[in-house]
Specification:
single chain; alpha/beta; TIM Barrel; Sulfite Reductase Hemoprotein, domain 1; 12 helices; about 20% strand; elongated
């Protein structure tokens, strides 16, 4: 049985750039990014955090370079990880040059606040010499003074004008290996800015709702903002910015992409909110299964429904399904069809066994 979604999203075709081994833009898969929160000069801690992010599927990792020691530490970090590294640079052009020389695969800068055109040229020369792409990172919280004076406050028009000004600085130097972001913590401001920018340029866009908040609040705001734009075909790479463990940013990013059928990784659990009809403790069961199945990388759909009202219908659309039945007698579904019954004290182990078996089949095919 082929479990296809109801609708596919038609993405806008943008220019392609490379961030290390990852292609961003065009028809490339939408990549998921996160950022370390360790001191970059603490190489061991930073490498450990990056490796944890790789385990949950991150594609690109950003590392802050606020000083010379940090930008020089990048070389040691990059030599120990197998994922593209973006150097986060603010204001000082020498940090950008040092990061490029140290092996950074991308520089996150605002060319407009780097300084004179000569300094911008030096940064772009280093980026060209070391095959380093650039992300123009426009943020509502750090707009140029002249734009704030012109528009009185951060607004979509100000973000887009800042982006266009910075794009021109790069284009004037014949540098085109870049992507752009126009972030805000305000969902409406950010989405309007991205829509406007997407309508007038074809450079790849990095989506995000910046400073979105805690795990729950930030995930909801990011899902609304990033998800809305992705549904409209806008966006080539994303970061869910959370005041939480960076691992949660990657997990949230995958959930957004899975919900829109744009990318799949791991087990997608479809579960009911539980009610008086439940024949087993749905909430506890789902929490346990999420933990026990977190190591699965293959795309598998799993339905966990506590009763027979919606259970059979949901199970018919998933690879594996569990539907609550009467008197400690629950039904397991395989490939959308009823297969065998299982008792409550055996159902978690049974589901894990079936998912792992399916995972192995997918790996071998």
């Amino acid at each position: 049985m082929n479990f296809r979604p109801f609708r596919d999203i038609k993405r806008k075709k943008t220019k392609k750039i490379k961030v290390g081994k990852i292609i961003v833009g065009g028809d490339a898969p939408i990549s998921i990014q996160s950022m370390t929160n360790t001191l970059t000069t603490n190489v061991a801690a930073t490498v450990t955090q990056i490796k944890k992010l790789i385990e949950v599927g991150v594609d690109i990792v950003r590392v802050s370079c606020p000083d010379q020691d940090s930008s020089l530490a990048l070389r040691k970090i990059i030599n120990q990880v197998n994922v593209p590294i973006v150097a986060d640079i603010h204001f000082h052009y020498k940090r950008a040059i040092e990061a490029a020389v140290s092996g950074a695969h991308c520089l996150r800068i605002n060319p407009g606040n780097i300084g004179s055109k000569e300094k911008i040229r030096e940064v772009l020369k280093a980026a060209k010499d070391y095959d380093c792409s650039i992300r123009i990172g426009i943020n509502a919280g750090s707009l140029e003074k002249n734009l704030l004076e012109k528009y009185k406050e951060p607004c979509p028009e100000a973000l887009v004008e800042s982006a266009l000004n910075n794009i021109k600085l790069l284009e004037d130097e014949n540098f085109f290996n870049f992507k752009i972001s126009v972030k805000s913590s305000d969902v409406f401001l950010a989405t309007k800015a991205y829509r406007s920018l997407s309508s007038i340029c074809d450079y790849p866009l990095h989506l995000g709702i910046t400073e979105a908040g805690s795990l729950t609040t930030g995930s909801i705001k990011s899902s609304l903002g990033i998800g809305t734009l992705l549904m409209e075909g806008i966006g080539d790479t994303i970061r869910v910015s959370l005041s939480a463990d960076p691992i949660e940013e990657v997990k949230a990013g995958y959930e957004i992409l899975k919900a829109l059928n744009l990318r799949h990784r791991g087990v997608n659990i479809i579960s009911c909110p539980s009610c008086a009809r439940q024949a087993f403790p749905v909430i506890d069961t789902v929490n346990i299964l999420e933990e026990k199945l977190s190591h699965i990388k293959e795309s598998i759909t799993l339905s966990i429904i506590g009763c027979v009202v919606n259970g059979p219908g949901e199970a018919s659309q998933t690879n594996i399904g569990l539907t609550g039945g009467g008197q400690d007698n629950h039904m397991m579904y395989l490939s959308g069809l009823p297969h065998h019954k299982v008792a409550s004290d055996q159902m978690i182990n049974e589901v894990v066994t079936l998912v792992e078996k399916k995972s192995k089949e997918l790996r071998n095919n």
